[in-house]
Amino acid sequence: MKCSKCGSEIENNSKICPNCNAKVNTDKFPVWVIVLLILFCSGFFVIPVIGLVAALTIPSLVVSTDNAKARAVIKKEYAQFNQALLMGKAISDKEYIQTEDILEKYLLEHLNLKKVDGDMLILADDTEFNFTKISDTCSPAPTSGEYSSKTACAKFLFDVNGFDKGLNKKPVSVRKLNDRFVLLLYSDKIVPESGSIEDKVLNNISD
Predict the structure, then answer these.
(1) What is the chain's mean pLDDT, rounded?
(2) Tens digit of pLDDT for each residue in 52-97?
(3) By three-state DSSP, how is residue 128 classified?
(4) Nearest to 129 by CA among 158, 100, 155
(5) Which helix (H) or strand (E) holds 183?
(6) What DSSP letter does each residue of 143-180 carry, written as one string?
(7) How would residue 46 be classed by pLDDT, with cut points 50, 70 and 90?
(8) What is the DSSP letter of 109?
(9) CB neighbourhood size of 94 (10 A)
């Protein structure tokens, strides 16, 4: 090996350079290796690594949690609205065909509403929704099972977080439902549009 001070060749087991009398470093590991080991064991590098892993995994966990919540709300409101509609029809002494009558007499009277603020309605579970009338009269859902806004009499827009919070976006896939979804009203049932993301969720169909 060579002397680190003068560069002269010296024997491996030498402790002093015979040329310049400099002390020969006989440490098995370089100092920088020892320093790195100490830093690693003290957590100097562990914390940044944990932070990096968290930064990569937490967003996906949040999306997964939000997606599960949106899926649960879609199924819950679908069941709740259909139950209210059927209850309204069962106890009513009159058969309504006007869209506004069906909304008010059959449906809204039997929903567990927390607040009504103009066109915006808030359910007891804090899900907000509004409705848009498509036609003046309401017909039964097509027997073909093809549901669309062209044949429905009204459209419900729901927002899981509230209309003034969150993403305020409709679903783009079963894996990315976001916080808004749509259901259609017929005189005998409330359904998602055929082939829509909501339809896939309610029928447990994957992308």
Answers:
(1) 82
(2) 444 444 444 344 558 888 999 999 999 999 999 999 999 988 899 9
(3) strand
(4) 158
(5) strand 180-185
(6) TT----TTT-SEEEEEESS-TTSS-----SBTTB--SE
(7) low
(8) G
(9) 7
Contacts of 174 (CB under 8 A, 6+ apart): 197, 200, 201, 205, 206, 207
Per DSSP, the three-state class of 181 is strand
Supply 131's token pair. 């409705």
Q: Please determine, for residue 37, whether its predicted confidence score (pLDDT) is greater than 70.
A: no
Residue 72, token pair as written in the block: 């649960």
Chain centroid to Cα 47, Å, comes to: 28
Tell me, what's the pLDDT at 89?
92
Place of tokens 């990096």: 52
Pick the residue with more confidence: 188 or 58? 188
How far is 65 from 175, CA to CA, in rounded Å? 11
Cβ(111)–Cβ(80) below 8 Å: yes
Q: Which of 154, 143, 150, 44 is nearest to 99 (CA)?
A: 154
Residues above pLDDT 90, as percent of the chain: 48
Buried b (16+ CB within 10 A) or exposed e, 32-49: eeeeeeeeeeeeeeeeee
d(CA 100, CA 133): 8
Query: pLDDT band at residue 148, thresholds of 50, 70 and 90?
Result: very high
The pair of structure tokens assigned to 36 is 């790195």
Sign of CA dihedral 198, 199, 203, 205: negative
- Map out the domains of the chain as residue ranges: 7-41, 46-202
Contact between 187 and 140 (Cβ < 8 Å): yes
